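Show me any protein, fold above all:
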Amino acid sequence: MDIFLIRHGMTPGNREHRYIGRTDEPLSKEGRAALLPPAWADQVTAVFVSPMLRARQTAAILFSHARQIPVEGLHEMDFGQFEGKNFAQLEHDPAYRAWVEGGCVAAAPGGEDMETLNRRCCAAFAPLVAQALAEGKPRLVVVAHGGTLMALLAEYARPRQDYFSGMTKNGCGWHLTADAWPEGGLTLVEPICCVHGQVPGSRA
């Protein structure tokens, strides 16, 4: 079975490099215009999406004929007090500096830590794979967030990679297969991109 993990298109906050984890903003006009449905879009009948607006809007553009199935656990990390701000606004904040120097592993003040994010995303995703395999589905498509994709890739992608190797640009993503699931994780096939003029595999 083929699995496609896709990050949502660009939002105003993404353009300004702001933390917008649980901020439910829409795609920007630029972000909407840049999205390009993949050649296989018409073969997709259902897409699993983060409930957040930017993911749902992206799925509607890329897979306009597919039914959307929201999955609560696939939402982005909660950045707490850092939400809506970027590096320039936070660089002199001691809490922010400590968070970054610690590898962004701990929770931002009032937010979510990386371990919680990873556990939540994997708990939401694994049953989707198991169900699709049990039903003999040819593919599984997920449209979610950068943090969500990094968590899933770090846990399941083979060959293994570290968390930040899964950083993905807006509208891009990853093609994997579940032939060895669950013991063998997911085989990473190739990067993909659903953005006009964007080269697959380029990092965020």
The mean pLDDT is 95.
